[in-house]
Write a structure and sequence with these properties.
The protein is of the alpha/beta class. The protein has one domain: Glycosidases (TIM Barrel, Alpha-Beta Barrel), CATH 3.20.20. Helices cover 32% and strands 16% of the residues. It contains nine helices and ten strands. The two termini are 34 Å apart.
Length: 318
């Protein structure tokens, strides 16, 4: 089970709640007709907003409201973050002050928006248009680069938006509609990160869930070193082959970690070696949470792992 499957206690970036209301009255007749079909004509991505390469980032408890665990992790690894993620419910509006505070520290912010228990058919049908239009306009006004990752790990059965509860066509229609609304409302500073989990056996094929290259900036991957014998190749290899069967987009590992124990330092070395051998991957984000038994990704205090992380990172970011 992925380290993010129980990350539904989202880190709220504001306390206000936007209610889903149809925005038909705010859209032109032509625009609404296109969006209502669930497959609007793509608005080209002309933003020029892109991530760099050899990225190392973190996500920590209480981030971004509480920075202490994040800063402590940077201190102990000796590696400053260049990218960071946090989770927020779909109902919350964009909070530019929080995002700007992260960006001002040289960290690219990635907001992982989760639809929760809201059926994605309601998003695909336009019931949430007003909310996303307001969100998009606020992001456009913010203007600096930002990543948005909507409904990650959809290929697993553990979330309400995943394959056990949602059809691939509905997910694709909702994704395309959101991207279309953002671009139509001037939010060209967004990098759209389409984020499956790695293949775990209980996951479904990801190809039918792909919205198309015109709606995706990067592919994200969530994958963990859960068992002692796992390597970069065994964790990520099968899913990388699936991805490359339908797109050659660059990839960001949006969640990863390794359980403590004698194997952890070697698995960190394997992670960095895999990155070096796979230029298509731009970097990774360490998910520094102790979720439950057998899924403890916290690095702080683990000196052998921290030494391995620091040494490999220094070589990786040369």
């Amino acid at each position: 089970m992925s380290g993010a499957r129980r990350a539904m206690s989202a880190l709220a970036v504001t306390v206000a709640v936007a209610l889903p209301v149809s925005a038909c009255a705010t859209m032109s007749a032509v625009a609404h007709k296109a969006a209502a079909q669930g497959n609007p004509a793509p608005v080209p991505d002309r933003s020029g907003t892109r991530l760099g390469s050899h990225l190392i980032g973190y996500t920590t408890p209480d981030f971004p409201d509480g920075m202490a665990p994040f800063r402590q992790l940077e201190k102990e690894t000796g590696v400053a973050a260049r990218v960071a993620t946090w989770y927020t419910p779909m109902s919350l509006p964009f909070h530019p002050q929080t995002v700007a505070r992260i960006s001002a520290q040289g960290v690219v912010p990635i907001v992982e928006i989760d639809s929760g228990t809201t059926p994605l058919a309601r998003v695909a049908d336009g019931e949430w248009d007003k909310h996303f239009i307001a969100y998009a306009r606020a992001v456009a006004a913010y203007s600096s680069p930002i990543g948005i990752d909507f409904d990650h790990e959809f290929n697993g059965p553990w979330f309400r938006w995943g394959y056990a509860h949602t059809k691939a066509a509905t997910f694709v229609a909702a994704w395309r509609r959101i991207v279309w609304l953002f671009r139509e409302n001037g939010a060209r500073n967004v990098m759209w990160i389409w984020n499956p989990n790695v293949d775990l056996g209980d996951t479904t094929a990801i190809g039918p869930w792909y919205p198309g290259d015109q709606y995706v900036t990067y592919v994200g991957l969530d994958g963990y070193f859960v068992h002692p014998g796992q390597t970069f190749s065994t964790v990520f290899g099968p899913t990388l082959r699936q991805v490359n069967a339908f797109t050659h987009k660059s990839i960001l590992i949006t969640e990863t970690g390794a359980n403590p124990g004698a194997q952890r330092a070697a698995q960190i070395d394997s992670l960095f070696a895999g990155l070096e051998a796979t230029p298509q991957i731009l970097g990774f984000i360490w998910f520094d949470f102790n979720k439950y038994a057998g899924h403890d990704w916290v690095l702080q205090g683990d000196m052998p792992a921290l030494r391995a992380f620091h040494a490999a990172a220094q070589q990786y970011q040369k």
